[in-house]
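Notes to self after the call with IL:
- keep both proteins in one doc
- input above output, always
- annotate only the second one for now

Protein 1:
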Amino acid sequence: MTTLAEETVEARKNVSRAVRIVIPLVALMFVLQTYLGAVVHPGYKFADPDVAFFEITKEVGGNWLQMLAVLGTVLAWGIGDTMAAQAGISRVLFSMERQGHFPKIFARIHPQYKTPYVATIFVALITGPLIYLLPLKDITSLVNFGALTSFIAMHLSLGYIFLAKEKKPLAVIMPAIGFIVTAAVWWGLDKLAKELGFAWLILGFIYLAIITRGFRVKTTLPID
């Protein structure tokens, strides 16, 4: 949602409001879903833990409910999440171009839809073949590494802003909790995810060193 801020009317108010509404709502849904699953199927004994909820839906409603759950997952994750990720990544590339970190072609805006269409097409051309080149489990792990590492960096940055710049020590509590929880989940990632993630991170540092001429050029973004 935050990557679409520039395309949102009254972004400062509406995007922050959307985040405050969606995150608690999604968290509540996940907790409720897990609770109901545990009530129906106590314990942790499944034929395949990766598809545990599909097994639970079959116990509750038979094959038809299981197929309905599978279909809903395909539509929500395979289509909905893919479109959201596609939109988010393309906007990140667009913003990186504006800071001079990517080729100018990524900043091209569609004349009718007012969206960064070149960046969107580029992301599709890169991510599409990965489905066939790498196992889904490895791709998911790599994505989780990037997301969790970004969240860890975000919590550290917030802690620094609240403590060092705004002199609000009590405000550090929430970023500290977020850092601990996120770091614990990050620590539980499998070995391959960490190896691929660190390799990608090293490539990113090398690229950053090149475009900043050995970290001599500042790359900070204005925060208003």
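Protein 2 (the one to annotate):
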Amino acid sequence: KEICFPRLGCFSDDAPWAGIAQRPL
């Protein structure tokens, strides 16, 4: 599964930073 951001692009949700996906940048 991947998470996509308009400004950041797409990343795997198993990446180390995945926890940020649940928080506003």
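Annotation: The mean pLDDT is 71. The chain has one domain: 1-25.
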